[in-house]
């Protein structure tokens, strides 16, 4: 997901319940060690709520010695900016999607986003908490980065349009669809017959409003936050791609953090990721009704035909070759044979 510069809103439900965590005071005395944690979502998003709770626990467990300062909503720059800062050692922690900017540096990091692969969120988490996640994390030190063990979940992405619901692959034919700037996203929708347009998120609302594109795709939480329901009519529960955030740090920066502090930070960030996963499940369950009340019409397509189309088009064969046999075998242990 990219920067949300337009119409920011505090999430309802679980995020609002957790929001007071943003306001709790830090220890009065100055910390010996101060680290920055950059994110690309608004302050009220469960990711930031849970990150701030982790920061409070870290401060408490280190008797105020360590201060983790959370900077939400691209306050430190866009995803590319923050990744550059992380690599240079100027930013200590950054939550970043594997499918977007990180995949330009480590292409295999986008693997969790392979289209129509995952039957449910539990299967994704089992894979990424297990062998597949371990394999993917092992690639980051090659470019000087490290990832925490537990991935923060953004959830499944859905297609919205202003012209028609998406019930079959044929409904995507020729559809002008906004996608993030990412080879995997573009490849997925081209293979389904759509006309994907790589547009920054900051320009997505206006592009939909002026009919530059007919639709877009995002998790329900982002559709709500960015008020995309104002310029879209249909929301098709395609679950076409799962996405989340790696919690990254710079390998050299991590090695400079005192040995007794590292496990405190890692344990609490991994706990926050697990807590945020539970938040997402609750939030997505409530958002469908909320978005329906705001004018979106929902439909639930049968997804088998979409996967069959991708098999016939050679999509899975293409990405299997790009990711390599070892990684693909680990993926198919959880997804079943993809093609």
State the low-pLDDT regions, or none.
1-28
Give the rounded overall mean pLDDT: 91
Q: So how many helices?
A: 14
Biggest beta sheet attributes:
10 strands, mixed
- Spell out the CATH superfamily: Bacterial extracellular solute-binding protein, family 7
What is the CATH-assigned architecture?
3-Layer(aba) Sandwich
The CATH topology: D-Maltodextrin-Binding Protein, domain 2
In N-to-C order, the SSE pattern is HEHEHEHHHEEEHEHEHEHHEHHH
CATH class: Alpha Beta
- Strand fraction equals 15-25%
Number of strands: 10
Distance between the termini: 28 Å
What is the 3D shape? globular
Radius of gyration: 20 Å
User: Into how many domains do the coordinates divide?
Assistant: 1
Helix proportion? 40-55%
Which structural class is indicated by helix and strand composition?
A: alpha/beta
What would you note in describing this structure?
It is a single chain. By secondary structure, this protein is an alpha/beta fold. It has a single domain (14-333), classed as D-Maltodextrin-Binding Protein, domain 2. The protein contains 14 helices and 10 strands. It has helices at residues 14-18, 46-61, 79-88, 102-105, 121-128, 131-137, 183-191, 204-209, 220-225, 251-256, 262-293, 304-313, 315-323, 325-335, and strands at residues 33-38, 66-71, 93-96, 145-147, 152-161, 176-179, 195-198, 215-218, 234-250, 297-299. Strands 1, 2, 3, 4, 5, 6, 7, 8, 9 and 10 form a 10-stranded mixed beta sheet that branches. Strand 1 (33-38), helix 2 (46-61) and strand 2 form a beta-alpha-beta unit. Helix 2 (46-61) packs antiparallel against helix 11 (262-293). The radius of gyration is 20 Å and the shape is globular. It starts with 13 loop residues before the first helix and ends with a helix.
């Amino acid at each position: 997901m990219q920067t949300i510069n337009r119409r920011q809103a505090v999430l309802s439900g679980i995020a609002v319940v957790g929001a007071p965590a943003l306001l709790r005071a830090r220890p009065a005395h100055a910390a010996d060690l101060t680290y920055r944690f950059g994110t690309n979502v608004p302050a009220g998003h469960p990711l930031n709520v849970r990150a701030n709770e982790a920061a409070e626990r870290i401060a408490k467990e280190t008797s105020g010695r360590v201060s983790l300062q959370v900077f939400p909503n691209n306050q430190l720059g866009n995803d590319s900016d923050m990744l550059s800062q992380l690599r240079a050692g100027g930013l200590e922690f950054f939550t970043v999607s594997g499918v977007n900017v990180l995949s330009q540096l480590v292409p295999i990091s986008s693997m969790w986003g392979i289209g129509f692969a995952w039957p449910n969120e539990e299967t994704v988490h089992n894979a990424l908490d297990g062998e597949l996640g371990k394999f993917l994390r092992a690639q980051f030190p090659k470019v000087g980065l490290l990832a925490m063990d537990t991935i923060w979940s953004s959830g499944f992405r859905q297609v919205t349009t202003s012209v028609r619901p998406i019930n079959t692959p044929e409904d995507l034919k020729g559809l002008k669809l906004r996608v993030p700037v990412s080879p995997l996203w573009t490849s997925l929708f081209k293979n389904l017959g759509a006309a994907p347009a790589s547009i920054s998120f900051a320009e997505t609302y206006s592009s939909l409003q002026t009919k530059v594109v007919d639709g877009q795709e995002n998790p329900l939480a982002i559709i709500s936050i960015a008020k995309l329901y104002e310029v879209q009519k249909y929301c098709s529960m395609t679950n076409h791609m799962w996405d989340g955030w790696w919690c990254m740090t710079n390998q050299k920066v991590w090695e400079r953090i005192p040995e007794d502090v590292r496990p405190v930070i890692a344990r609490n960030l991994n706990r926050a990721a697990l807590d945020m996963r539970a938040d997402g499940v609750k939030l997505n369950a409530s958002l469908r009704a909320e978005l329906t009340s705001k004018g979106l019409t929902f439909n639930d397509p049968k997804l088998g035909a979409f996967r069959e189309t991708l098999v016939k088009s050679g999509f899975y064969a293409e990405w299997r070759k790009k990711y390599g046999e070892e990684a693909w075998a680990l993926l198919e242990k959880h997804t079943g044979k993809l093609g």
